[in-house]
Design brief:
six-stranded mixed beta sheet; alpha+beta; about 250 residues; 2 domains; globular; 5 helices; Phosphatidylethanolamine-binding Protein
């Protein structure tokens, strides 16, 4: 989920104060309930021993002091009322209408189930993108855009390893290293118009492939600015797909 947050800044997300308060209170309640249960169990055992001793003496003897103390401790473990924090801000109708929903299934048969990207799809191999497949592109889509980005910003900015626009919305995928007809590549953060996944030696990186379905075509030119295209895509796209991969050197 962190990956999705890194790519899509969805409106209407408020602070987590209320949730944190509720969690802390719930933990407190659980701890007190566990303590009460432990005390109750101990009280029952003590009461049983007391009753056995009383049966050996007079039949009219009362409860043992141990049983009385246990019962007293159990009564003290009263339910705790959970505090109520500030309610989570609700999204306005305008925000809900403009939000981009991750509802397109994006996957790659070239990526391991663990999410590991094979070396051949990086600068340590052939340097071509993996096969990508998707389902759920909505009707009325005019153009598809794919962006590959580092989850961790570089010098405070998104780092783009790949940007591909002008993809025919009727397609349901692209092959590895195969440029679809009519598609153009933007200039990645290495300064080249093309694909490059290449973390620094000795480091591992997580990358996000984001597919945007655009209701109107942006039709950028070869070597376009991926950051500018991403801003434009987020402004008009209501549907997207995400795929997280990782690679270390």
């Amino acid at each position: 989920m962190l990956a999705a947050v890194a790519v899509l800044a969805l409106p209407g997300c408020g602070g987590g104060g209320s949730e944190e308060t509720t969690s802390a209170a719930a933990t407190q309640v659980q701890g007190q309930q566990d303590k009460a249960s432990s005390q109750a169990a101990g009280g029952q055992g003590s009461a049983a021993k007391g009753s056995e001793s009383q049966r050996q003496g007079a039949d009219g003897a009362g409860e043992s002091p141990t049983a009385q103390n246990s019962a007293k401790n159990t009564k003290q473990a009263k339910p705790v009322t959970l505090p109520k924090g500030e309610p989570e801000p609700q999204a306005t109708p305008a925000e809900e209408a403009s939000a981009t929903v991750v509802d397109i299934a994006l996957q790659s048969p070239d990526v391991a189930q663990s999410g590991a990207l094979p070396a051949k799809f990086t600068c340590d191999g052939k340097g071509s993108w993996p096969t990508l497949r998707w389902q759920g592109v909505p009707a009325g889509t005019s153009e598809l855009v794919i962006l590959a980005m580092n989850v961790q910003p570089v010098q405070g900015k998104l780092f783009f390893g790949w940007a591909l626009a002008g993809i025919d919305p009727s397609l349901e995928g692209i092959g590895s290293g195969t440029l679809p007809k009519g598609a153009v590549q933007g200039k990645n953060s290495y300064g080249k118009a093309g694909y490059e996944i290449c973390p620094p030696p000795g480091q591992a990186e997580t990358y996000i492939f984001a597919l945007y379905a655009l209701p109107k075509a942006l039709s950028p030119s070869q070597g376009f600015d991926p950051a500018a295209l991403r801003s434009q895509a987020q402004a008009i796209s209501r549907n997207a797909g995400l795929l997280a991969v990782s690679y270390g050197r």
